[in-house]
Design goal:
Length: 402
């Protein structure tokens, strides 16, 4: 890996970064019905086939949070490794200090215990380390020359470093394929309820008022367009499972996520496998449940796992949120010292953004801007040229199995 080469990974556009949303379609939808690929007997059998190549390329590391998607992937990988007499998968878990909403350690221990996993379990500890502009994110931004999508992709960097030369199994795609139908994000609803300043209410028609409430850091015309695009995308999501799966497979959001994971993995000679996006698995799921309208996540997990996996793997649980784990001291320090420069003023109103950032925690939709502006500031300090890329594996976070 040359120190002077920067791997080419598709990036979010300036509008994606400014709005905090990657909307629209554009990815080529893979075929789920190839004539030369028989559909597996069941979705579980298909998942077993999907994880097998990763297990055959040790070390096989699993990004394991204790949530439903990563628990399912880990359980299937453990099952296949034992049956095929392959080295067991190695779960790697982040533990966050002072971030109670990201706490999932109880479920993590329950799943590990139920799987009777005898091999190592790496637990990485993060205080301010995983801040959106903290030391781990900084290494990734330097290495790849700017913002990747999603903004928390850096949490996988130390995990990928642990898998150097092997493979990584993730739960990517679970939110799209299994998690249920879109609803306006809670943060979006909160913004929509905020009262506008009297001067803004006086000059903007109702549609633009809603947009400015939702995305107050954007120029009004840009906010209006983004708000309409977001609403149109929510309305466009199909209700029937088979159509919904195909629809999500073509979304830019998912395509950029997978490209980032694959690109960072390839840079470390790591094969990244996302079993919940495997064509065989999705084809089998469509055969079994494709005609269902708005099935719940629990229905789909029960259909997939049946009684073949420990009950705790698919037991209902609350979904952790991670904003407080990623917006910490480094973000606060940068925001406090930010002078309003570096934004694309055709898209973003720097005064309005400064106002939005005057409250804590910051709006989730501005975290990509936070990373971008941090990167621009560092580039300017280097004389207008981005700092040279660094080897992503030069400063790995130490992790010892416990």
């Amino acid at each position: 890996m040359s120190e002077l080469s920067t791997p080419s990974i598709p990036r979010p556009t300036p509008l994606d970064i400014a709005s905090g949303s990657v909307l629209g379609h554009g990815a080529r939808t893979p075929s789920l019905t190839a004539a030369d690929r028989p559909v597996p007997a069941s979705p579980l059998a298909a998942l077993e086939q999907a994880v097998l190549p990763a297990l055959a390329r040790p070390p096989c590391v699993v990004s394991f949070s204790g949530g439903l998607d990563s628990s399912l992937v880990l359980a299937v990988a453990v099952r296949v490794a034992r049956r095929e007499q392959l080295p067991p998968p190695v779960p790697v878990t982040w533990r966050f200090t002072d971030a109670p909403k990201a706490e999932e350690s109880g479920w993590q221990h329950e799943v590990i215990r139920a799987l009777d996993l005898a091999g190592p379990w790496h637990r990485l500890s993060a205080g301010d380390d995983l801040d959106f502009v903290g030391p781990v994110a900084a290494r990734l931004l330097h290495r790849y020359g700017g913002v990747l999508h999603p903004g928390n992709i850096h949490l996988h960097l130390p995990i990928i470093e642990l898998a150097q030369g092997g493979s990584l199994l993730t739960g990517a795609g679970g939110d799209q394929m299994l998690a249920g139908w879109w609803r306006p994000a809670r943060t979006m609803r909160i913004r929509l309820r905020r009262a506008l300043a009297p001067a803004v209410r006086a000059v903007l028609p109702p549609g633009r008022r809603r947009a400015v409430r939702a995305l107050p850091w954007l120029r009004p015309d840009v906010a209006t367009d983004c708000h309409r695009s977001y609403a149109a995308e929510v309305r466009a999501e199909p209700y029937r499972l088979d159509r919904r799966i195909h629809w999500h497979l073509g979304r830019r959001d998912l395509a950029l996520t997978c490209a980032s994971l694959s690109g960072v993995g390839a840079d470390h000679q790591v094969s990244v496998v996302n079993p919940l996006l495997d064509a065989g698995f999705l084809a089998a799921l469509i055969v079994r449940a494709g005609r269902l309208h708005t099935p719940t996540r629990q229905q789909l997990l029960t259909l997939i796992a049946g009684d073949e996996l420990p009950a705790v793997v698919t037991a209902p649980r609350g979904k952790a949120t991670f904003l407080e784990a990623f917006v910490r001291r480094h973000a606060r320090d940068f925001i406090t010292g930010w002078d309003g420069s570096g934004v694309d003023e055709d898209l973003v109103d720097p005064v309005a953004l400064k106002r939005v950032w005057s409250t804590w925690p910051i709006a989730p939709g501005t975290t990509a801007l936070l990373q971008h502006l941090w990167w621009v500031t560092r580039s300017e300090r280097a004389g207008g040229v981005p700092p040279g890329p660094t080897r992503a594996a030069e400063q790995p976070i130490a992790a010892a199995p416990e």
